[in-house]
């Protein structure tokens, strides 16, 4: 359920050389995911896609599907790092709660596989990728496509997930320069 550049593995947990990062844009109906490789300042696309759950199923069944699919994706690409967009509040408390539950499952799936997860506010992701925290979704998508020109992006949620991964790559690179 996504697009792949044919490369997997190659993660370097020490932060030297090639680093594989998975970015995640949580949602109960649709969770976007994107895997990139960061080597110095160079970023390259590995794979991206969307995990959809059936709204007709009970909430626990939807959460199980999300965890199983994400687990398969993490196992297939063996990232050394993960990043997830933080929950934002909206007008519908039920929607916010469901988003939080999906996000919890995403954090669990990553933690079960030994990944530390960087967490980023939506405004920070937009600022890191586009240059302004108030960027529109279309601007984020366009900039992700510009930064990862070989990526066949599977949809808006996948583009957001790739943006989260790019943000994490920039954050890790900055932390290495400071250290």
Low-confidence stretches: 1-15
Oligomeric description of these chains: single chain
Task: Tell me the series of helices and strands, N- to C-terminal.
Answer: EEEEHEHEHHH
| Distance from first to last alpha carbon | 38 Å
The CATH architecture: 2-Layer Sandwich
What spatial order of strands do you see in the largest sheet?
Answer: 1-4-3-2-5-6
Summed up, the helix count is: 5
The shape is globular
State the helicity in percent bands.
40-55%
**Which band does the percent of strand residues land in?**
15-25%
Rg: 15 Å
Largest sheet: 6 strands, mixed
Q: What structural category do the secondary elements indicate?
A: alpha/beta
| CATH topology group | Nucleotidyltransferase, domain 5
Mean pLDDT: 87
Number of strands: 6
Provide the CATH superfamily.
Ribonuclease H-like superfamily/Ribonuclease H
Give the topology, please:
Elements: E1 2-4, E2 18-25, E3 30-39, E4 42-52, H1 59-77, E5 81-85, H2 93-112, E6 117-120, H3 122-130, H4 137-147, H5 156-178
Parallel strand pairs: 2-5, 5-6
Antiparallel strand pairs: 1-4, 2-3, 3-4
Helix pairs in contact: 1-2, 3-5, 4-5
Structure description:
This protein has 179 residues and is of the alpha/beta class. 46% of the residues lie in helices and 23% in strands. It has five helices and six strands, in the order ββββαβαβααα. The protein is globular. The model is unreliable at 1-15 (pLDDT under 50).
Keywords:
Nucleotidyltransferase, domain 5; 179 residues; disordered N terminus; 6-stranded mixed beta sheet; alpha/beta
């Amino acid at each position: 359920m996504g697009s792949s550049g044919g490369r997997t593995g190659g993660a370097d947990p020490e932060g030297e050389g090639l680093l594989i990062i998975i970015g995640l844009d949580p949602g109960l109906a649709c969770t976007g995911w994107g895997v990139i490789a960061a080597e110095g300042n160079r970023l390259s696309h590995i794979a991206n896609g969307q995990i959809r759950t059936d709204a007709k199923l009970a909430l626990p069944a939807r959460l199980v599907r999300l965890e199983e699919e994400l687990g398969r994706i993490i196992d297939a690409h063996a990232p050394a790092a993960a990043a997830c967009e933080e929950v934002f509040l909206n007008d519908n408390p039920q929607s916010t709660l469901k988003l939080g539950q999906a996000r919890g499952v995403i954090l669990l799936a990553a933690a079960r596989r030994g990944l530390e997860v960087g967490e980023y506010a939506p405004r920070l992701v937009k600022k890191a990728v586009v240059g302004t925290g108030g960027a529109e979704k279309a601007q984020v998508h366009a900039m992700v496509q510009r930064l990862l020109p070989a990526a066949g992006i599977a949809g808006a949620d996948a583009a957001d997930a790739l943006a989260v991964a790019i943000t994490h790559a920039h954050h890790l690179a900055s932390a290495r320069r400071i250290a």
